[in-house]
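Here is the promised in-class demo. Please do not try to memorize the tokens; focus on the logic of going from shape to residues.
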């Protein structure tokens, strides 16, 4: 795994926030919004995850296309990003504590793992937010690092090793734009573990 060097944490945040602020970016994303929602929806349908009406959180959601796609599939979904885009996406930093109670979500989705600054803090927050048996669905760009990526993930184990107590439900290549790998992990049922230990 390679890591991008930043002068400070604030320099990282400012650089990540600047991507969406570049002239024409929001306009271009808005033009293809309907198509991207449909693509997200179709791709989500290929995987068996979560349950209808469950609460879902999208990390690094930009304009919220994945949030809307999950909503159309019956989830109660919200997104967080450094740049808010109401009402679908609220401001939040997934390297820090997010404004949600413990065990708030049945599903967490992200295609922005390569933008994470602190993988340990990120994985700890996911653990806090997921319900027992909750699922973590990730799309990865293995072997790629551009100007805005904070890390280059070379193999899925660099992520799955952060969640040794999660069951791996899906670990396979995909082909959608720059994303080339999908992970679907399920948090252990802590209640079951406690009962089996008695």
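The designed amino acids, position by position:
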């Amino acid at each position: 795994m390679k890591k991008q060097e930043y002068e400070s944490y604030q320099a990282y945040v400012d650089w990540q926030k600047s991507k969406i602020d570049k002239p024409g970016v929001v306009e271009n994303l808005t033009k293809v919004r309907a198509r991207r929602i449909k693509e997200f929806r179709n791709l989500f349908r290929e995987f068996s995850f979560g349950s209808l009406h469950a609460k879902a959180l999208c990390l690094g959601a930009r304009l919220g296309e994945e949030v809307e796609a999950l909503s159309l599939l019956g989830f109660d979904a919200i997104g967080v990003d450094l740049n808010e885009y109401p009402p679908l996406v609220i401001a939040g930093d997934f390297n820090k504590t997010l404004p949600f109670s413990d065990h708030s979500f049945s599903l967490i989705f992200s295609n922005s793992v390569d933008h994470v600054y602190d993988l340990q803090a990120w994985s700890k927050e996911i653990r806090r937010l997921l319900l027992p048996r909750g699922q973590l669905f990730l799309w990865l760009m293995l072997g790629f690092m551009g100007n805005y990526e904070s890390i280059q993930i070379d193999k899925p184990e660099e992520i799955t090793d952060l969640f040794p107590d999660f069951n791996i439900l899906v670990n396979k290549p995909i082909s959608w734009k720059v994303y080339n790998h999908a992970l679907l992990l399920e948090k252990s049922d802590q209640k079951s573990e406690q009962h089996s230990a008695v």
